[in-house]
Each structure stands twice: as C-alpha cells, then as structure tokens.
Design brief:
Blueprint lengths: L1 E5 L2 H18 L4 E4 L6 H12 L9 E4 L1 E3 L10 H8 L11 E2 L8 H14 L5 E4 L21 E4 L2 H7 L12 E4 L2 H5 L3 E6 L5 H9 L17 E6 L8
Parallel strand pairs: 1-10, 2-3, 2-6, 3-5, 6-9, 9-10
Antiparallel strand pairs: 4-8, 7-8
The chain binds 2-phosphoglycolic acid.
Length: about 240
C-alpha cells in the first residue's frame, strides 16, 4: 500500500484529486468508482477547479458510484444522486448518461443489484475506485458482518451509521434504514483504489483496518489484500501510525 500523509483535509483533497485527474488524463475513457460523504467534498471541488482551467476533461469518462439509500428518489436532497449532481457532475463535462448510481428506489431491488453488477462488468470494471471509511470500518455501505458479500446488495444500515449520517438529515428518524451498495468483490476488482480519510475521528478505525487482522467485522481491512491501494490521509487521521 502506498501511503500519502498530508497536513490537513485540504491537502488530502488536492493530492487525491491529483491521482484522479492523472487517471483521467492517462485514460480519457476511464471508469471512475466514486464515493459520497463529507470526506470527498474537497476532492470534487478541486477537480471542478481544474476542469474550469481546462486541465482535465471528463467528456469520455464513465462514473459508477458505490452506493445509494433505499427509498429516496434521485431528486431528494439527501440522496447520493443529488449529492453527486450538485457537488460534481453538473459542474463538469461528464455526460449525464454516463453517470451511474444504484437506483435506491427500485421496486425490484434484487434485479437492480444484479443489473448494477452486470453494468460494472460490461464497462470492463473500475479503473479507479475512490473510497472513504466509515466509523465502523465500512466501505461503501458494506457494514461489519460475519461475512463479506461479493456483489451489489441491499443492506440494513447499522444504528451507528444511521446516527453518523443523521447530521445530513433533519432527524435521526429521517435517515433511511436500508441502502444498496456495491459488494466487496466489486470494490476489490478495481484496478486502483484511492482510500481517503481525514480527522481524528477516523484515526482509530483507519489504524485497525490497515494494521489489524483482515475480517468482515472491519470491512475496510480487506483492502490490505488489494495490490494497488493508495491511502491519502491527513495527520489527524494517521496519528496512530508510527
Ligand atoms: P464521511 O463518510 O466521509 O462522511 O466521513 C465516510 C463513509 O462513511 O464512507
């Protein structure tokens, strides 16, 4: 694993954005696996800035997001579709029809999940997957469990995740209890993974996930087995590393 330690969130964002824009420049038709949450916000801001300066062109890029809440339509302000449109897609020249997220409100979610896996295969897999890490070690919405689930699936969010994400909703009871998420195989088959973490609150789980035993109880620990992971994390998040 390559480790890039940065001074703060802003520098983390710039370094991670650099890796993503290098990917797009090297392979303009690349498939980017994208993530939501607070951590990647600065990365998208930076990429938008470089796009505006004509330094990077997303016109041939396809994006496939990790996950989506169930029971929220794409125009709901807390849906991940809305997040991606507002924070990234509408500011760059990616073709809207080449941006994919699981449809969290699909009536037949099992079909939606298998269609999503088929889509990833059809696209030839992910060239680069951007990942945050949850307080409980989740990646995407792969929550701690007894075993890893390989493909896209519906997951019951843990109370800890619902609590953590309630900061974006008007109340904890408004947070959806279910989500669709790419599985561990989908993520692990990405050619390159950029794992980002920022702040003290991620320090303990980041250290456990990357230095402890590989276990589905800490989903991110599986990343130790991937041959091409770049960790970009700030000093606060890395304080338990020697
Ligand atoms: P955060 O979420 O970036 O909002 O902390 C990370 C995650 O849950 O994957």
């Amino acid at each position: 694993m390559q480790i890039i330690k940065t001074t703060d969130h802003q520098q983390m964002s710039r370094y991670a954005a650099n890796i993503i824009s290098a990917q797009v420049i090297m392979k303009p038709t690349c498939v980017l696996g994208l993530a939501t949450g607070a951590t990647p916000m600065g990365i998208y801001k930076q990429l938008i800035e470089w796009y505006r300066k004509n330094d990077v062109d997303f016109s041939l890029v396809t994006s496939v997001n990790l996950d989506e809440y169930c029971d929220l339509s794409g125009d709901h302000e807390q849906s991940y579709r809305y997040y991606m449109n507002e924070n990234f897609f509408r500011h760059i020249n990616i073709a809207p029809e080449n941006t994919f997220l699981p449809a969290g409100d699909a009536a037949d979610y099992e079909k939606e999940c298998s269609d999503y896996d088929a889509l990833i295969q059809r696209l030839g897999g992910l060239d680069l997957q951007l990942l945050g890490i949850g307080h409980d070690g989740h990646i995407g919405f792969n929550e701690p469990a007894d075993e890893y689930v390989p493909g896209t699936h519906r997951v019951r969010l843990l109370d800890e995740t619902i609590e953590a994400n309630s900061r974006f909703f008007s109340g904890v009871d408004k947070v959806p209890k279910y989500a669709l998420t790419m599985g561990i195989r989908d993520i692990m088959q990405a050619k390159k993974i950029v794992l980002v973490a920022s702040g003290e609150e991620k320090a303990e789980i980041l250290h456990k996930a990357l230095t402890g035993p590989v276990s589905p109880r800490i989903p991110a620990s599986v990343l130790q087995l991937h041959p091409n992971v770049i960790l970009v994390a700030d000093e606060m998040a890395m304080q338990h590393f020697a």
